[in-house]
Design brief:
Layout: H1 34-41, H2 46-61, E1 70-77, E2 80-87, E3 100-102
Antiparallel strand pairs: 1-2, 2-3
Length: 103
């Protein structure tokens, strides 16, 4: 896009995790609409779907929501999914307690 000169800082995922599901596109349709479900299946990415489901499960397990500063980053390699998460205080401060889970 030719905007590289405007970048003043690249956020390091070692300390700055995105919001749960950030960057994933979610589409819905009626359960009984088989034609639309067939079309949507063509653009489904199973790895992304699994990553977002894992991040949302973490968020739900922590009792979080849109107004809670919880971040997540998920990566997949083959059948291995790695989820890294962070919970910040409402004022944005972070106590360093790293928890990693793999399945």
């Amino acid at each position: 896009m030719g905007l590289a000169r405007h970048i003043s800082e690249v956020l390091d995922t070692a300390w700055m995790l995105p919001a749960v599901g950030q960057g994933a596109l979610g589409l819905e349709c009626r359960a009984d609409d088989s034609q639309t479900r067939t079309l949507l299946a063509k653009i489904d990415d199973p790895a992304t779907r699994c990553a977002v489901l894992a991040e949302r499960a973490m968020l739900r397990g922590l009792g979080g929501g849109c107004q809670v500063p919880i971040g997540a980053s998920t990566s997949t390699q083959g059948v291995r999914l790695t989820l890294q998460g962070v919970v910040l205080a409402p004022d944005g401060q972070c106590e360093s307690k790293e928890v990693r889970a793999c399945h």
